[in-house]
Amino acid sequence: MSDLTTRDEGATPDHGHSAPEGVNPDDLARPLYEGPGALPAADIPHRPRRSDFDPKAARRAERQVSSLFLLSGLMVVLFIVAYIAISPQAEVYVPLFGVIGAQNFALGLTFGLAIFCIGAGAIQWAKKLMPDVEVVQERHPLASTPHEDVEAEEQYERGKEESGFAQYRTIRRTLITAMVLFPLPLIVLLRDLWSPRGGSLTASPSEFLSTTAWVEGMPIVTDGTYQKLRPEEIPVGGLVSALPEDINEIQEAEHNLNARGKAAIILVRMEPDEIRSQQGEGWDYQGILAYSKICTHVGCPIALYEHRTHHLLCPCHQSTFDLADAGNVIFGPAARRMPQLPIGVNEEGFLVAKAPFAEPVGPSFWERG
Asked: What's the pLDDT score for residue 3?
């Protein structure tokens, strides 16, 4: 520990005395530096704060700190009320930001103010009520001597006593109240880790995450233009990002992008004789293969395809999959192969899904092997 010495040895706040002799209370707000010729900080005489000698100022500071802690607790309560009472679909106009989600705005505002009030209260407490003692730390070897260890312990006990934690009961109680309430928003937000589809509580997270919008006969459309695809439109070596035809209707009904994220696929075309294996017999169409676009490691979208080797590379953690060999992992941290979607053509000659994914898409989790 360091060898600490103070410029005002033994100085402690004394709220029962008047201003020190020779100090004008009206001069306390004057800046310590007045021009380029001012003395360096080490040579400037120490000036006490008003709360050091004015009991009214000390009590006023105590009320300010306590009010900030109480306001923090109130913001936490309002956070929970907003989370319960405001619909996730509600919107509100905010200057400079336009129309945004009313619930997100209320949650961010209340939780941000809760954090700010605790920090502001602690700063106000330290600036106006804790001992105003300047400390000089001399350079010394990093290793502490037994004497310094004992002195550090004594300084800790002294600091604990001088902080006023035991003296200012109102501050202590309001701070404890604010700190107890502060974690509640984090606990409340855990509810959003699972939001059942359509408000139903019957489907488990595993069931929900393991199903996609792909069904038998669903036309495949391009991502962005939403145009149906014909086999001849995809050249050998080409790659197309695609989605199920009804993805926009599902998004509007669910008010989120969950279905899009799970159903995103890529279509690649290679010569049929280059396909060494598939996840099901005849799941390609004339060399066109459909795979999930979501990496099985942590769920990053993938579209980096090397048509000469037929390797698909994840840009996040470099997991590499061989699309000519059933999408198996050949490198990287991914532990599962890329799920393949069986495809064919309908009577109109457009590419369609012949069945849903046979394996769950996306990364693994505790309920998924």
From this structure: 45
Q: Is the sign of the CA dihedral 210, 313, 354, 348 positive or negative?
A: positive
Would strands 351-353 and 343-345 be described as parallel, antiparallel, or unpaired? antiparallel
First to last CA, the chain: 51
Residue 191: both structure tokens together: 């509810």
Distance CA 74, CA 85 (A): 16
Spatial separation of the C-alpha atoms in residues 305 and 50, rounded to whole Å:
70
Give the DSSP H/E element, type plus range, for residue 180.
Answer: helix 169-181
- Amino acid identity at 157: E
**Residue 348, Cβ neighbours under 10 Å: how many?**
9
The CATH classification number of 202-353 equals: 2.102.10.10
Contact in structure between 66 and 94 (CB atoms under 8 Å): no
pTM across the whole model:
0.52
Residue ranges in the chain whose pLDDT is less than 70: 1-44, 140, 194-206, 366-369
Which residues, at least 6 apart from 126, have a Cβ–Cβ distance to it below 8 Å? none
DSSP 143: S
Any idea where the domains of the chain sit in the sequence? 4-192, 202-353
Name the nearest CA neighbour of 356 among 206, 245, 211: 211
Dihedral (CA of 23, 28, 34, 40) sign: positive
Give the side-chain half-sphere CA count within 13 A for 154: 9
SS3 at position 182: coil
The answer to whether residues 339 and 354 touch, using CB atoms and an 8 Å cutoff, is no
Provide the pLDDT for residue 203. 61
Please tell me the predicted confidence (pLDDT) of residue 41: 53
DSSP codes joined into one string, 16-32:
TS-PPTT--GGGTTS-S
Geometric angle at alpha carbon 27, from 22 and 28, rounded to 5°: 95
Q: Would you say the C-alpha torsion 291, 292, 297, 301 has a positive or negative sign? A: positive
pLDDT digits (tens, 9 = 90+) for 208-238: 777 899 999 999 999 989 999 999 999 999 9
Half-sphere exposure of 307 (CA within 13 A, CB side): 15
